[in-house]
Amino acid sequence: MSVMRASAYALTVWVAMAGLALSAALLAYVGMHLRADQAVPAAAMLCALLAAHLWYGTAGRDARLGLIAGAFALLIALSLHAAIVAHAGMRLNRPLVDDALATVDKAIGFDTPGVVLLFARTPGLASALGFVYSTTVPAVFLAVLALSITGKAAQTWRLLFIYGAGALASALFSVGWPALANFVHAGLSQQQVPGLPEGSGRFFLASVDYFRNGTSAVFDAARLSGVVTFPSFHAVMALAVAHAAWPYRHLRLAASVWAALVLVSTIPIGGHYLVDVAGGAGLFLVLAWLTRSEHVPFHTGTARFGLVQQSPLA
To answer: What's 229's DSSP letter?
Structure first.
């Protein structure tokens, strides 16, 4: 007897569909609309990638090209949906939870502002961490490209599910429990931390001003920034990339060190509380666990719709 079990491919598609529904509903609820000059090209690109995914990924045409096109279609869609939810959700003006996050850090004995000031006194290290922090999103795209171009379908969909579900979960939590992060809460100005890269811990404030405090009905994608405080999505991304690289011995150490540096950088560069980083790590662990035993063939039989037929003991 066999059972039908959702694959990472199906889970990723479902997350993308959920993100589309949530972003559309939230935009309508807060009375915002997308700019046509931004939405139309993005929609056209996604349609082209999805068409290539379906065309090349079926009937034995070219599974690898189909995988690449599908992976990037979902990567872009997942990113856009989560960004819309996080930013449009700020228009709800939910109460800020910085006091609670700072209290948790203090309760566990972690002096978050003090750590920021410590890094500010070591400009060379701070600059290096700033660079590492800036590589997080490109690293996700590079990992998806490397996995898909080498035909690693199962690993590609696994990474995309962790990325997409992590992005949407982080965005939704940020909508309900927003925060302005450690720098703002502690009153740290650029003048107080001259050794940190420009904009550290405060780079997102212009976006907050537009989406949370503004009244414009236009959702301007040019104003997007990293507005999620808890949980840290940079932590999710860093651990997801390291997780994807772990099976490859020659990449394991470098990816692990890079991920560790990203986690460190989230406090002095991203402005996070320590509890944000712990929350991001916990979210990653849950999502990685959900895909721990996936076996995802690429568009074969019932797998075309993301379902894999397996023995109950598999």
So the answer is: -
